[in-house]
């Protein structure tokens, strides 16, 4: 008697093979398509980031047109010079003065300019998100927040600080860089690495310190910059940069192995509304792009970061940009065109 194969079993076996093949095909397609979709999304975020920086650059130009000078790093109703270094963390930042030019007039008018930027009175301002100041490739501005130390609270030991001493604030992912440190290899040992003689000053003005150093002394005078002072050409000089990842201190894409003291005096102010000292507004010596977000240009984008030039244009600088090329782009009048 001839036995025929069970047609149902054969069909089931065939269906199993088809299922495995389908799963394999789906897996292959997913492996191809998911990175492609992610790349498209990141491309859109980069375009948004570029547009943010363009908006800030245009707002800076609008401010300059109205005031014949760039915004001051330090703002308030009354600033009694000389200013102690610690005082500089608590004045209103250059970003606060740009608000009307970023369609944020109501927020600008809500600022109590006669009070410190880090005061309780100005906390509602400091905790407000200003969309052009946040890079979409970074983390949520209300999740990964910056913070400020209240004026006079530095003397309070960290474990004993209360909400009256510390406030979480909305960060900014973009910054104004006042210059860059370039220390010659021939400098003698023991020289102050923060000496003003090593700074190539940029577009943001002229500070004068009592100790001739960007750290540890008093700011005697400060004159905001003017575009006419840029002899190297507006299209050759850096005005604004990405400064992402803060308040976490990132080095080469990773949190620093030994975290710094979280006080602003060690890592700089990370909120958008309060000012910084000059030491945190100067690109560090030999610090390239995406190497250290505490002392240099840093982004959440692979391969480089956006910068805005003084003519208002925005460019993407790659991580391979030579430090000396970067230094020439920062200087406003060092003869490099």
Automatic annotation (TrEMBL):
Query: Does the record's keyword annotation contain RNA-binding?
Result: no
Give me the segments passing through the membrane: 12-37
Sorted alphabetically, which keywords does the UniProt record give? Answer: Membrane, Transmembrane, Transmembrane helix
Q: Which SUPFAM superfamilies does the record associate with it?
A: Pili subunits (SSF54523)
Residue ranges of the DUF1559 domain? 38-323
Q: Does the keyword Zinc-finger apply?
A: no
Show the Pfam families listed in the entry: SBP_bac_10
Under InterPro entries, the record lists: DUF1559, Pilin-like, Pre_pil_HX9DG_C
> What name has this protein been given in UniProt?
DUF1559 domain-containing protein
């Amino acid at each position: 008697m001839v036995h025929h194969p069970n047609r149902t079993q054969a069909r089931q076996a065939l269906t199993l093979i088809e299922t495995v093949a389908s799963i394999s095909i789906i897996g292959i397609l997913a492996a191809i398509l998911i990175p492609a979709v992610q790349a498209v999304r990141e491309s859109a975020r980069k375009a948004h980031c570029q547009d943010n920086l363009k908006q800030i650059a245009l707002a800076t130009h609008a401010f300059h047109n109205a005031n014949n000078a760039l915004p001051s790093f330090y703002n308030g109703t009354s600033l009694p010079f000389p200013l102690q270094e610690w005082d500089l963390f608590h004045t209103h930042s250059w970003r606060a003065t740009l608000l009307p030019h970023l369609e944020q007039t109501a927020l600008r008018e809500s600022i109590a300019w006669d009070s410190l930027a880090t005061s309780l009175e100005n906390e509602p301002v400091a905790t407000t998100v200003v969309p052009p100041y946040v890079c979409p490739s970074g983390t949520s501005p209300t999740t990964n927040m910056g913070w400020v130390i209240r004026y006079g609270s530095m003397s309070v030991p960290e474990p004993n600080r209360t909400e009256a001493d510390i406030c979480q604030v909305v960060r900014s992912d973009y910054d104004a860089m006042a210059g860059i440190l370039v220390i010659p290899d021939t400098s003698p040992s023991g020289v102050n690495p923060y000496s003003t003689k090593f700074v190539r000053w940029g577009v943001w003005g002229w500070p004068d310190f009592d100790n001739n150093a960007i750290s540890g002394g008093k700011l005697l005078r400060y004159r905001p910059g003017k575009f006419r002072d840029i002899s190297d050409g507006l299209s050759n000089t850096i005005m604004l940069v990405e400064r992402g990842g803060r308040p976490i201190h990132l080095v080469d894409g990773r949190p620093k192995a030994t975290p710094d003291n979280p006080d602003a005096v060690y890592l700089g102010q990370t909120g958008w509304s309060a000012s910084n000292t000059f030491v945190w507004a100067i690109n560090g010596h030999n610090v390239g792009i995406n190497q250290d977000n505490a002392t240099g240009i840093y982004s959440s984008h692979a391969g480089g970061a956006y910068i805005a030039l003084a003519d208002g244009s925005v460019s993407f600088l790659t991580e391979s940009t030579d430090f000396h090329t970067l230094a020439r782009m920062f200087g406003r009048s060092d003869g490099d065109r």
